[in-house]
From TrEMBL:
Fe-S metabolism associated domain boundaries: 12-133
Top-level taxonomic group: Bacteria
Name of the protein in its database record: SufE family protein
Family statement: Belongs to the SufE family.
UniProt organism field: Tomitella fengzijianii
Name of a matching Pfam family: SufE
């Protein structure tokens, strides 16, 4: 198992922080999540019901060397948006092989369990699982 460089950098950033600073960084990721492209509608995306807030994703793995990820979550759901932002920044554009190699529990290295509920962390795990499943199914 391996972690793409961009995701490894995010993990390092979280490891360097404590307590509320981790929450602040998570909120920054929520603000940086890009809007959906005009041609992609939320209705055409897959819901992730394990998330506490509405979250939809789309995985375009047509180019196995540069998988494209799309996430949609409402602005009033900053934790969910933050998790989506982490996956977007850390995995978007990575190869299918690299994404499939990310450990399912990578989020434990972020150290968020002290500031975010286990139920919310399960949402991040579900997002990654669905991304991986979509990649496998597109092969």
């Amino acid at each position: 198992m391996s972690i793409p460089a961009a995701l490894a950098e995010i993990i390092d950033d979280f490891e360097d922080l404590q307590g509320q600073d981790k929450v602040t960084l998570l909120l920054e990721f929520s603000q940086e999540l890009p809007p959906l492209p005009a041609e992609l509608e939320e209705a055409a995306m897959e819901p992730v019901p394990e998330c506490q807030s509405p979250l939809f994703l789309r995985v375009d793995a047509a180019d196995r060397q540069s998988v494209r990820l799309y996430f949609s979550a409402p602005p009033e759901s900053p934790t969910t948006r933050g998790f989506a932002g982490i996956l977007y920044e850390g995995l978007n554009g990575s190869s299918a092989e690299d994404i499939l190699g990310v450990p399912d529990d990578f989020y434990s290295t972020l150290g968020l369990e002290k500031v975010v509920s286990p139920l919310r962390l399960r949402g991040l795990s579900a997002m990654l699982s669905r991304v991986k499943r979509n990649i496998r199914e597109s092969a």
